[in-house]
Amino acid sequence: MSDTIAAIATARAPSAIGILRLTGPDTVKILDTVFRPRGRRMSSRPDRVMVLGDVLDREGQAIDNGLAVLFRGPGSYTGEDCAEIHCHGSPVVLQEVLLSLFAAGARQAKGGEFTQRAFLNGRMDLLQAESVVDLIDAETAEQAHHAAAQLSGALSRGVQEIYDALMDITSRFYAVVDYPDEDIEDLQREDMVVTLSAAEEKLRSLLATFDRGRILKQGLPTVILGKPNAGKSSLLNALLGYDRAIVTDVAGTTRDTVEEKVALGHVLLRLCDTAGIRESSDTVERIGVERSRQAASQAELALLVLDTSRALDGEDEEAVAVAAAVPQVIAVLNKTDLPCAVDETALRMRFDHVVSLCAKNGAGMEALTQTIEKLYPLGDAPRGELLTNARQADAVRRALSAVSAAREALELGLTPDAVLTDGEAALEALGELNGKSIREDLVATIFSRFCVGK
């Protein structure tokens, strides 16, 4: 990290304001070259004060007037000297200023390199760093709240407590193994078991949050099923709030899966509208029906659309059979604006979750939202304390396995070195979780998900 990096930190589209960032040892010198304040140079200005001035191109000519602010390390985002230049959001202006920064000695930042430097300089741990990209990618308010809480260290603090407790045990075992003749405080086996059991329970509880965290971050895979012309595409359009799928009175209009995302309350749905389930001699429609079945096999929630204006028939039952393989099913009794031709009481006894609505005019949609929120509650875990990706879950799973093995070895009366081996394995897994001990190539992979400028 001996060089200085720079990047455009805002979107490459015309906007009111555009921001460029730079960080590294030559930040102050480069800023003095590219930004000309009305008065003293930036190098003689205090930190965290916005200064008005001219932004210069590679020829030293003013290309814009804007603001600059300096954040000297180590109390900056990256732990190094950092600066931002705020100009008008013309993509041309931003590109010219970036080239000016390069000409003054900076290089183009890679994706996530600012946050990677913050991690490497100890300004945040790996869990907090991952929450930065989660916050940028947030598609619901709940996602943003969770990411912000994790960025503040909500999850990191709990992990650190477990790490410290295990470190205390392993260090004491090390002392016994390495210095058997020394007068070292006797290891109390019962106290050790209690500590390991507590760590085991905390890790088990943490691992149990992964399903909720994954749904919170990625969205809930949801398939809309039903026979042709039951109103599946109308329901998709009603959920989205615009006409995404073609709706006609002709059965079998939808021939392929249509995928979109929509937030219903605190739950983000990854919706998949499908072709109507039925037997068909039409080759294209048969392919569509097969894709419907594949979508159902990968879904966690099925919205089973039933047309209540007509008696249920064999095609409805076929759709019911496909939906039965999905972990959660909500029977959506559609077309309530028309005379009812089904026994709703019998259907409510048949399905655990039933909602009556009219996708055409939107009546009853709020009841569907409430049902989904009840099926997928936020849970008791405070914001920021959910595992949200497979890397985190895998590390916790390995730590849990190692802690369980250490406890069992201790209870069986095995030698200290056996307990120590499992304790070290748990510490290594937790070190990967928060970044205390992690391979360089894995760090690079994690930060490659970030956008340039962050």
Would you kindly provide a written description of the structure presented here, covering whatever features stand out?
It is a single chain. This protein has 16 helices and 13 strands. With 454 residues, it is of the alpha/beta class. It folds into 3 domains: 5-109, Probable tRNA modification gtpase trme, domain 1 (Gyrase A, domain 2); 130-209 and 385-438, Four Helix Bundle (Hemerythrin (Met), subunit A), CATH 1.20.120; 221-375, Rossmann fold, CATH 3.40.50.300. The strands form 2 sheets. The protein has a 7-stranded mixed beta sheet with strand order 3-4-5-6-2-1-7. Helix 7 packs antiparallel against helix 14. It is flat. The two termini are 16 Å apart. 40% of the residues are buried. The model is unreliable at 245-256 (pLDDT under 50).
Précis, in short:
By secondary structure, the protein is an alpha/beta fold.
Report the CATH superfamily of the largest domain: P-loop containing nucleotide triphosphate hydrolases
Number of strands: 13
How many helical stretches? Answer: 16
- Measured by DSSP, the beta-strand proportion falls in 15-25%
Q: What's the Cα radius of gyration?
A: 29 Å
- The 3D shape can be described as flat
Number of domains: 3
Q: What about the largest sheet?
A: 7 strands, mixed
Structural class, by secondary structure, is alpha/beta
Strand order of the largest sheet: 3-4-5-6-2-1-7
**CATH class descriptor name of the largest domain:** Alpha Beta
What's the CATH topology name of the largest domain? Answer: Rossmann fold
